[in-house]
Design brief:
single chain; alpha+beta; Beta-lactamase
């Protein structure tokens, strides 16, 4: 069932990956690690399409939801590293139309750290809205902020892709997906797209959603979804047109450029994207930019959208230990609603539990993708144990303090 390679010293990762299939309900998945720029784990296994029993192969890819934000953020940082984008300048210098209703002082930094104040759209989004770049960027430009920009943060779960993505487009002269292909995916040889070519469709493993039971609807986030359709959480989750529900398994949902949510790749693609960032920046960004990418920019005890404590760098998640702070951890398992990494690490979780990150202090890059989504808002009991196994393999001792420590 499990195929691929695992270098000596990293057997713990392979054992954990296999255990996920044996006892944790994994259906199809991939995991990849690089250490010091060398691929030390590259494994895949299980079933990509349960209806046809199609196996998960070496080149199988799947939608990685918010792991896409890491790719979009990287595009912005590449432009900043080249001097083509000032993260602290008002975005109206590039995007004048955005400066409406009190958003005149919004910066790209605020867009990256989820403090720009437009985590959702209030008025109903048309069915094909998420597949229409101009429609979504015009709607966001006209949206009144949910709070004074920069004064707090709330996860911009889908809107991030069009706010940061439009800045990338205007600064580079290329669409977000084209820029990512030209400057990241092709140079690094990655199977990774924001806007999937039709010829890759046969390799895509469909998403298998996690279905919550009525008795599960107890967390602040799920309560907001169930009881207040005008809450930030509900607007973010439900008001995204045809992409909500089954859109992630459609050709239209794959072909569009949704820079917050519809990147398609596998663990090798995620680990490959972060590998240069774990080793000095490579040809992607300079050292000054790399240092800035990993620093905490915004944190809160109650994210306005996710309703859990969150910590963000500029476009990336930092280690978040909510094991004792989240009702979801008590309901769905200790690993839910957390992502526990090294203190220097930065990356991004995707809905259902996929993950990609770089840890420059450890020289580690990591990728995990799967088709069966799990519960909770961040990691769950399949992905976090793989992260733990990676750090233990590198000689780290514990995560008792909320980050992995040697």
């Amino acid at each position: 069932m499990i195929e691929g390679t695992c270098k000596p010293g990293f057997e713990r990762v392979a054992e954990t990956f296999e255990k996920n299939f044996e006892t944790n309900g994994e259906v199809g998945a991939s995991v990849c690690l690089t250490a010091g720029g060398e691929t030390v784990v590259d494994l895949w296994g299980g079933v990509a399409e349960p209806k046809t029993s199609t196996p998960w192969k070496q080149d199988t890819v799947s939608i990685v939801f918010s792991c896409t934000k890491g790719a979009t953020a990287l595009c912005a940082h590449i432009l900043a590293s080249r001097g083509q984008l000032d993260l602290d300048a008002p975005v109206v210098e590039l995007w004048p139309e955005f400066g409406q209703h009190g958003k005149e002082r919004v910066t790209t930094r605020m867009m990256l750290d989820h403090s720009a104040g437009v985590p959702a759209l209030r008025a109903k989004v048309k069915g094909d809205g998420p597949y229409d770049w101009t429609y979504m960027t015009e709607r966001l430009a006209d949206e009144e902020p949910f709070w004074v920009p920069g004064t707090r943060n709330g996860y911009h779960g889908v809107t991030f892709g069009w706010t940061v993505g439009e800045i990338v487009r205007r600064a580079s002269g290329k669409s977000l997906g084209t820029f990512f292909q030209d400057e990241v995916a092709k140079p690094l040889g990655l199977d990774f797209w924001i806007g999937l070519p039709e010829e890759i469709e046969p390799r895509v493993a469909p998403v298998l959603p996690h279905v919550y039971k009525p008795e599960d609807m107890q967390t602040p986030f799920l309560q907001d979804l169930a009881t207040n359709r005008q809450s930030t959480a509900a607007l973010f989750y439900f008001n995204i047109g045809a992409f909500m529900g089954g859109g992630a398994n459609t050709r239209a949902g794959h072909a569009a450029e949704i820079g917050a949510a519809n990147g398609i790749t596998n663990a090798r693609g995620l680990a490959g994207m972060y590998a240069p960032l774990a080793n000095g920046g490579g040809k992607l960004v300079d050292g000054r930019t790399l240092a800035r990418m990993g620093e905490v920019s915004m944190a809160t005890h109650d994210d306005a959208t996710l309703r859990i404590p969150t910590r963000f760098a500029l476009g990336f998640m930092k280690s978040m230990d909510n094991r004792r702070r989240s009702l979801g951890a008590r309901l769905f398992g200790e690993d839910c609603d957390s992502v526990i990494l090294g203190s220097a690490a930065f990356g991004h979780v995707g809905a259902g539990g996929s993950l990609g990150f770089a840890d420059p202090a450890a020289g580690l890059s990591f990728g995990y993708t799967m088709n069966r989504m799990g519960p909770g808002l961040l990691m769950n009991g399949r992905g976090q144990p793989l992260v733990d196994a990676a750090y233990l393999s590198l000689g780290y001792k514990n995560k008792d303090g909320g980050v992995w420590a040697r």
